[in-house]
Design a protein that fits this description.
The chain is mainly α and 114 residues long. It has one domain. It contains 4 helices and 2 strands; from the N terminus they run ββαααα. It has a two-stranded antiparallel ribbon. Helix 2 packs across helix 4.
Length: 114
């Protein structure tokens, strides 16, 4: 199964790379900050994903080494869904509401509870 997702512009969040699904949700510096801002301090780089399909596969069925001891697979999948939704909403605010790309630690506070 080939999953492709490619946008026509540079990433609206970091403005440094071409926007692809893999970049937006895993490789973008803003996305990395969002993932790390969870109470688990998750490093998205720990998921071995070289394409969008591998990223989703690793989120739905995370490797044991990627999870904290107290985190269940179900909790991880829920956290990942919430974080990816947040990243998508941040992207859309920049793209469609012309919100300025200024992100601080306050932008990610709501993930400290996850």
């Amino acid at each position: 199964m080939k999953l492709t997702c490619k946008m026509a512009t540079s990433c609206p969040l970091c403005e440094t790379k071409e926007e692809t699904c893999l970049h937006l949700f895993k490789n973008c510096s803003v996305a990395k900050a969002v993932w790390f801002s969870s109470s688990w301090g998750f490093f998205i780089e720990s998921l071995n994903a070289n394409n969008s399909f591998d990223l989703i596969k690793n989120i739905v069925s995370p490797p044991a080494h990627g999870l904290h001891e107290q985190v269940t697979k179900e909790q991880f999948v829920l956290m990942a869904a919430k974080i990816m939704d947040h990243i998508w909403r941040l992207r859309n605010q920049v793209m469609f509401k012309n919100k300025i790309n200024k992100f601080s630690s306050n932008s990610f506070q709501n993930f400290a509870e996850i």
